Amino acid sequence: MNAIPVYNTKWKWVMLGLVFSFLYIPIMILVFYSFNESRLVTVWAGFSTKWYVELFNDKQLIDGLKLSLTIGAMAATTAVVFGTIAAFVLQRFGKFRGETSFAFMITAPLVMPDVITGLSLLLLFISLGQFFELFAQRGMMTIWIAHVTFCTAYVTVVINSRLQELDRSIEEAAQDLGAPPWKVFFQITIPTITPALAAGWLLAFTLSLDDLVISSFVSGPSATTLPIVVFSSVRLGVSPKINALATLMILIVSCATFLAWWLMARAEKKRQREIRSAT
């Protein structure tokens, strides 16, 4: 038998350190310069928190953040609903006429360039604006619809993969006991795929919050999301307020991630205790 090669543990740690340094040192530099006294982000002039104060006094940034969070939550929730329906159709309806076209249209935004998607949606809203007053002015509604369009594709993939692994014997047993299909769906299927629903919602929320290209096509002067505000300000020169905003977002995401990990670890320990007590 051939011996399994044993790699030097020292070089493993070196490579791991290089990878993590490449990923996280720029973030640490950004956080460090958010406490810079100077207006120049690359020149250290002393410790100060004045940019955090100016950040909360910047109405344009705060309004952009509120709009992005609102649209992100709405788009993620809607995308989860549509994505669940689409994944359920693909997995449970079997072969039907137009199945290939339906699957292609659902997953098309995954590979479609953002510029093409944004331009297509812009032309759609301009055409609809000639007949419906709702689309005459582009704003929060058009951004929300655009974000739902591409977020649904990602959510569908996540939930579809979970439905493929789902044991259908539990659903069949419930139906054999007389449970109607809608009750099986809401009381058995949905609770079983809840982790996938949560993952899809978080993924859609992140994509919506981060989107710049598509939002720039379908937004109007009455609705400016946070990425558009940040991009517009960066074009005139990076302000330390952007560093402060990024630092706060990193802090919030880190706390949310740690809380999610703690809850999952706690649930896993509880499940392991129940298994040991049952045996």
TrEMBL record:
GO terms for cellular component: plasma membrane. Residues 65-260 form the ABC transmembrane type-1 domain. It is found in: Cell membrane. Keywords: Cell membrane, Membrane, Transmembrane, Transmembrane helix, Transport. It comes from the Bacteria. The chain crosses the membrane at residues 12-35, 67-90, 102-129, 141-163, 184-207, 242-263. It is a multi-pass membrane protein. It holds the Pfam family BPD_transp_1. GO terms for biological process: transmembrane transport. Belongs to the binding-protein-dependent transport system permease family. CysTW subfamily. This is Putrescine transport system permease protein. The lineage of its organism: Bacteria, Pseudomonadati, Pseudomonadota, Gammaproteobacteria, Vibrionales.
